[in-house]
């Protein structure tokens, strides 16, 4: 006669206990876990670069394939010849000038500091405003402390610049490796995409699969249009800035134009972020030229905001100014400069699906999305 085994008491709590122990172990070794994750991402950085490069170059390759009806390998060849040619031109012409401008600026920094302190001692120090805010009895100590702080800042800046240069060299090597890997990704992209789709079909339901495909298409449309368009727009603004500054005979023109072009990638806040260092760099050389730089950049940004940007980008993201500012504020506060740049397309995706959700609820509740306010 077979007897039933009695159930082990509290057996249903064993998985919860195991999960709890694992979470405790994870939290207790959180620094080691994050260090391991950081090392992992450092190793796969070339592959991340490869995915990014392939994604950015795919529209150009598709253009040669569809519009000019060229074969894949030939379209790929033309695409990379153009990109490598652009990078070569940048490395051989603009980059040396930018590096030279930075070197000159660092070499002249002590002179600029001395001139600023002389101007401060001869002009500001003897004004009533200075006596009111600082006090004449503390003026010598204040000037001395200010000079020490400026010198300390200069040393920190130089050390930071050297460290950033080393990191930049390492990143460039990873970028070049990623550039090579991206060729193989683009050459066989259909096979990769089909394998991903097969995996999604196998692991998800039909509705979930369709929703994921629809989501990825929305993301691809917003990101590809926005990022490529914004890059072209910022490149044109940077080149116009370089030509204009050279015509006005502004010192460190290449460095200023590079800063303006890069920061222009950030909507709304970018022009102001680029304007501040441009004016500060110039004001040490000549405050009159600094005023002209300020006026020129304001005009240039107005031209971009009112004419060039809308021509290139149109209304790709579908976000109003207040939503863009909110997205950039949240993205910048969370992830810094990269967050400010990616906040706009991510915000656009969130808005698209939020609108879909609201419209679905309105249709279900009122039978229409056009609901009058009471």
TrEMBL record:
InterPro entries: AI-2E-like (IPR002549). It is found in: Cell membrane. The keyword Metal-binding does not apply. The chain crosses the membrane at residues 10-27, 39-61, 73-95, 168-187, 235-260, 266-284, 291-309, 321-354. Keywords: Cell membrane, Membrane, Transmembrane, Transmembrane helix, Transport. It comes from the Bacteria. The keyword Transport applies. It is a multi-pass membrane protein. Belongs to the autoinducer-2 exporter (AI-2E) (TC 2.A.86) family. PANTHER family: PERMEASE PERM-RELATED, TRANSMEMBRANE PROTEIN. This is AI-2E family transporter. It comes from Clostridium oceanicum.
